[in-house]
Amino acid sequence: MIAVKICGITRLEDAEAAVAFGADFVGFVLWPKSPRATTIERIREIIPALPGSVVPVGVFVDPAEEEVQEAAHAGIRLAQVHGDSPAAFHALSIPIVRAVHLAGDGIEPDVPDELVLLDAYDPVSIGGTGKTVDWTRASRIARTRRVILAGGLTPQNVRDAVDLVKPFAVDVASGVESQPGIKDHALVRAFIRAAKETM
Fold first, then answer.
1. Which of 7, 56, 87, 118 could form a disulfide with 27 if both were Cys (CB 3.0 to 4.6 A apart)?
2. Considering 14, 119, 160, 163, which one is annotated as catalytic?
3. Whole-model pTM?
C-alpha cells in the first residue's frame, strides 16, 4: 500500500488527526522563510504524542549538518533536504531524502539516491506551492527509483496521480489546509483515504 506524508504540521491537533486517519509520515518544516515553519521547541512537544509507527520528518533548505542533528535529537527520524548541501553530510544519525525537481530528461539535482522526493520547482517558495509536476515524466523517474511524489496534490487528484506515477509515497501540505500551517481535518482524511484506496 502507498505511504502518505502530511507535511507542514505546526499544531499537535493536526498531527494527531493525520495519525488517526492513517498517515505514515508527518512533516515539520524547519526553514524559517516558510509559511508553515515550526521550531525545534514545538516539535519536541508534538513528536512524543506520535506512535512509533509514524515517522517524523524534518524539512530543511540548505541546512548545516548541526541543524539536522539538533532536529534528530528532538525526535526527527528522517531529514528531507532541499538545496545542494546534502552531499556534504557525513555523520548524520538519521537518513536523508533529497528533494529534487524535473529538469531536462531527468531530475535536478541529479543525485544517485534510490529514494527521492519529487516536487514542483519554485526557487522562492521551495515547496508547498500547490503546483503539480508533469506526472507522465514523473512516472518515468518512478520506474528507476523510489519516489515520494509531491507538488499540487489534493484529495481530488491524488488518486489519478498515484495511478499514473505509481510512487512509493505521496506528500501533501497546501492541498489539505484551511490556511498555511493549519490543516483541514476533513481534507486530510479525504486525501489519505483517496491515496490508499488506489493500490
1. 7
2. 119
3. 0.93
